[in-house]
């Protein structure tokens, strides 16, 4: 089945000190979306609404063709969810947890679980209380992955992992997508992880979605242009200029609608283009957030 | 899984460009022969631990350049006539020339001065090569 795995339209949720406002999201089946935002931006609220754990004030949410929160019981059979505050039973072993989850979910894949134990470097006979933070995160991921859910929802899956652990986890997430029917939605503060494995990227800040597109579109459209202006020459007018930095004679423009033809436009206006720099996702995210926040103030 | 392609994090270029370049090199040196099957988009994405969309982008551009052919549902093969060797180096040469001119302009060199410098460099390097060859002959 191809189509849309997750769809939010016009979703809002009001709290005394925080409002999630007009969230629109669309995640195609078979893709992986990285959901990026600062602390308190609304990532976890969005994820909890997605899971039916809290109810939106208005707007509609569809997950795997189920309406949320009304049909959340049916939807959750096919969703694997891992969040930071996931509690496992401290005095019981990982093996006990694996048995427990497999008794609830008939699609539990024993071979895949064994494979994950090896690739996450975990021991099933260990008790949860003896595991490090990183090992607990990997244990929770194992329990979710081995159910082979059609949708994986992960709240900060790589936070608190060491570099080796992050690499193991990212590798298994990408491997999930070798099957085109399965979809991943994950939030993260680590833009490097998001840049590496995401197809779709959504930025959230202060309760609003500020940008959402496929990754290549982001990386293609954002550029820094380093110009050299002759004396008494005005800055060329370009579309999508987010920020002008540098100095008067050596301005640096950040643009979000870059096209190769812009270089010729600058040259025609008398400006020498010294360099066109690609931007990392982190630079794009920060420039994006700053320009939106300044826009609100102005 | 061992990947036939190695992505560098510190390489400033986008990942899809790195993939394209490495595939072209494999084809240019004959490691991947004409008509030979190459890893599918998803398989390569899993091996490299990167998103499918990045690999897809690289394959689409390679197809546009005539280096590979992708058949839906069947995977991708190296084109029967990728004709890559001269074409690949010619483009790289052109890019480096542009770079030279850009920096030359920053230095305030005239076109003639730049041409002269290029000529000098070529003679110098050719001479070094000549000496090295002679040295090798003598030692053998």
Write structural notes for this entry:
The complex is a heterodimer of chains A (298) and B (140). Chain A contains ten helices and 14 strands. By secondary structure, chain A is an alpha/beta fold. Chain A folds into two domains: 4-218, Rossmann fold, CATH 3.40.50; 223-278, no CATH class. In chain A, the strands form three sheets. Chain A has a six-stranded mixed sheet, with helices on both faces. In chain A, β4 and β5 form a beta hairpin. In chain A, α4 runs antiparallel to α5. The mean pLDDT of chain A is 91. Chain B is mainly alpha-helical and 140 residues long. Chain B has two domains: 15-78, Winged helix-like DNA-binding domain superfamily/Winged helix DNA-binding domain (Arc Repressor Mutant, subunit A, Orthogonal Bundle), CATH 1.10.10; 84-139, no CATH class. Helix content of chain B is 63%, strand content 7%. Chain B has five helices and three strands; from the N terminus they run αβααββαα. Chain B has helices at 15-28, 41-48, 52-64, 84-107, 111-139, and strands at 37-38, 68-71, 75-78. In chain B, strands 1-3-2 form a three-stranded antiparallel sheet. Chain B is extended. The model of chain B has no long low-confidence stretch (mean pLDDT 84). The A-B interface holds A 31-32, 167, 170-171, 174-175, 177-178, 180, 196-199, 214-216, 219, 272, 274, 278 and B 12-14, 16, 42-43, 45-46, 49-54, 57, 102, 105-106.
Characteristic key phrases:
heterodimer, A: 298 residues, alpha/beta, Rossmann fold, six-stranded mixed beta sheet, four-stranded antiparallel beta sheet, 10 helices, B: 140 residues, mainly alpha, Arc Repressor Mutant, subunit A, 2 domains, three-stranded antiparallel beta sheet, 63% helix
